[in-house]
Give the backbone structure.
Amino acid sequence: MDKQGYDAIRKLLGESPAFVQGDVACAYGAVLAGCRYFAGYPITPATETAESMASLMPGCGGTYIQMEDEIASIAAVIGASWAGEKAMTTTSGPGFSLMQENIGYACMTETPCVIVNVQRSGPSTGQPTEPAQGDMMQARWGSHGDYELIALVPNSVQECLDLVIEAFNLSERFRVPVIVLTDGEVGHMREKTVIPEFDELKLVERETPTVPRESYVPFGGGEAAVPPMGFFGLGYRTYVTGLTHTEKGLPATSSAEEHTKLVSRLCEKIRQASESLVRIEERYLDEAEFAVVSYGITSRVALNAVRTLRRRKKKIGYLRLIGLWPFPEERLLGLSKQVKGILVPEMNLGQVYHPIREAVAGKCRVAHLPKIGGEIHTPAEIVEAVQKLMGGRRR
Amino acid sequence: MNDEPIIPGPARPLKPHRLLKFLRQEILPTAFCPGCGCGTVLNSFAQAVEELSIDPKDMVFVTGIGCSSWIPSPYFKGDTLHTTHGRPIAFATGVKIMRPDLKVVVIAGDGDIAGIGGNHLVHAARRNIDITVLMVNNWNYGMTGGQVSPATPFGVPTTTTPYDNPEHPLEAAELVAAAGANYVSRWTTYHVFPLMESIQKALEIEGFSFIEILSQCPVSYGKMVDMRRASDFLKFYRDQSVRVHKAKEMSAEELEGKIVVGKLVERQRSEFVTSLRRINERFREG
Ligand SMILES: Cc1ncc(C[n+]2csc(CCOP(=O)(O)OP(=O)(O)O)c2C)c(N)n1
């Protein structure tokens, strides 16, 4: 994006700082990141992002389309990405469930795209207007087969904007779908939001091939490579399929060798970059004996609780997961060697609790504080749970 | 790239077929069963592209999952998105909106387009987006071995209706015409020349164009109804088809079991991407 393009977008977005909803900030982030295609389907509490994109896209030279369902929305987004554009869709639980097959397709075909899931309370239609963190595992494992993708979890309106930009950058860089997991609370609350200036904006664009068509290898490049993307209309006549394919892209559905090579590369390109993908916020961890590990809206309450405990001279630390997938295992293992126990408050019945326990591998106690029903934890609940953890005996 | 003739033959090598230039020859021969109609559709399609002198680099093929999806994919040498079952029209919508200068063509089966993907079909026709869809109707789910499809005729056995199909088939072409497409026709693999001309028309016309192509499946479908040779189907198509204008003069009883072939609709409703761009530009000019 050049300065002129940026200025045009800034004119549409208006004053900075803005006072907007998280959902709207997601749209701001998208247009600043260079998103020029949005396909969606209305669903509470994500609809405001679609409405914002509908009003912003024409002014940015982009296109909004409301598709007939969420399966079509993600399909059209993948199509637009192969037509060479940065593309996004937003949804909530029921729509996210419908998208799963095509999210796997995007992983298999290495299609950059961004999916914002403003989580609501499920299963099924559940509590449409209430927040939840019930799709943390679905984001990672929702589609069939082995794959890796990236998921980011904002806890403020500002971070909705910032992380959607980052999501686009990572999806272009690694050619994977990137999922931004907000929730009904972050999506609907309004906060002061600073719009980045032109020179603060660092955008990543997908690499395209420079070789002639005959020597272009669309899905090759070795172990953990991210091949350049010869998208449609460039003249490469790229063959893209969700079937197991060779480096040339042609189907090789009966070959164990080709399948292993392909799927290993798709996973390795993310796994080998996982250290660079760690996004965590750490506070009060110096000399901490116990820690609260949280993410999303819950982390704001957790921070409040940690501060309260610190005022009471308790050695409690705070770690917030911003990048959820790939999971920052090493960091949690490191934390477990420092502290005696970790408390995991979350708005589900135990989703991120599990990978934390796996990472910690018994090095310290891990306690769980689940809460569902659309209500956010209170600081008092977290304080009490930490005290219980501190007083507990090692089994 | 190998330009050698692929058909092993007499000592004097055959000249490569002139339409072979459109195909990814390294992956031939095709995976189609003996007698399958997909080859005929591929041939008619390639012929239409040749007649119109379209450069395949200006085309994008979007297909679903099923034997018919393999007609262009991987054989036709153009940018190709072989998608998930039922969704090619939705994927194609994203491609077309961002690249209206490219010809976007969807080829897939009756199960893919009218069954699992039926919702996308109806809405793409309603929007009248400039995409060409060839629905290859072989009256069954061919790839999975002959199960009942939304286009299977009433009363015939399939592997999942072993005691005969209790459902009525969808008349996909009529449905798409009612939904608002600019061009709709129905032909069969018996009618190769009209089919080729119709594909040309569909590629040329602005707006949603749809051709339902009845195409034989002697292996998966034929085994259940004792039509094991391609010619069994071609004779059936020849004998049972009625041209659109004739059909208009026939009663419902007379039309029972007939295949109405020809052009159902040709009109000039405004095309979706053009309207969308116009509205967006109007906004930009403020
Ligand atoms: C979501 C999903 N459901 C089911 C399948 C299995 N499947 C593969 S091909 C096919 C049927 C194809 O039939 P049709 O679209 O009529 O094409 P044909 O093979 O007859 O040409 C099915 C059901 C699938 N691949 N994906």
Remarks:
- Chain A has 13 helices and 16 strands.
- Chain A touches chain B at residues 36-37, 39, 57-59, 61, 63, 65, 67-69, 71-72, 75-85, 87, 101-102, 105, 109, 214, 232-233, 235-243, 250-251 (CB under 8 Å).
